[in-house]
Amino acid sequence: MKRVTLLIFLVAGFVPAAAAQEHGQVGVFAEYYKLKKTNTDFGGLGGRFAINYRRSVAFEAEMGYDFEQVFTESFTSGTGTVQFVRSNIRVLHGLFGPKIQRSHGSIRPFLTLKGGFVNFRFDPAPATVGTFTSSVDSLRSQDVSGVLYPGLGLEGHLGPVGLRLDAGDEIYFNNGTHHNLKVAVGPILRF
């Protein structure tokens, strides 16, 4: 009986400490992308995965697929509307790099510096999972540009579930340097 009591005591003591360790996070996001060269606004979806190296440093990988063109119109009465319209232009982003974050608290500011690629393509097909997969499959045969993404943001958590907002300058290199605003927001799950 003493061994069982000791075992329960040890498990009860170690489980909260093990559960408090954060190993990484996974999340999805809605994305706004301002293509400066053509002054075009895009909207899309993406996902990310991060593994913590230390409590304040994580390595993230993310991919976003922008398949909607965003139009804003304002009227003389001062009101405006925002429309999302299917576009024949698709943008595929893939980024990887470190995220430096505050290591404790329910609201955590962070900085990130990622590298990767961006792919622009003309595709009149409807935006479906199939067109996304064919976009990823044909990356080698399509025009791909290198990207550098410095950004910052905030994460808020209630237990393992949270919300993340980040923004930055997605700089791609193709016949010069092109700066583009990228903003993403979405839920995350810490594990």
How would you characterize the overall build of this protein?
This protein has 191 residues and is mainly β. The chain has one domain (20-190): Porin (Beta Barrel), CATH 2.40.160. 15% of the residues lie in helices and 64% in strands. It has 2 helices and 10 strands, in the order αβββββαβββββ. It has helices spanning 2-20, 129-137; strands at 24-35, 40-54, 57-74, 80-101, 107-122, 144-158, 161-169, 171-173, 177-178, 181-190. Strands 1-2-3-4-5-6-7-10 form an 8-stranded antiparallel β-barrel. Strand 2 and strand 3 (57-74) form a beta hairpin. The longest helix has 19 residues, at 2-20. The protein is globular, with a radius of gyration of 21 Å. Residues 10-20 have low confidence and may be disordered.
CATH T-level fold name: Porin
CATH class: Mainly Beta
How many structural domains can be distinguished in the coordinates? 1
Number of helices: 2
CATH architecture identity: Beta Barrel
Global morphology: globular
Please render the helix and strand layout as text:
Elements: H1 2-20, E1 24-35, E2 40-54, E3 57-74, E4 80-101, E5 107-122, H2 129-137, E6 144-158, E7 161-169, E8 171-173, E9 177-178, E10 181-190
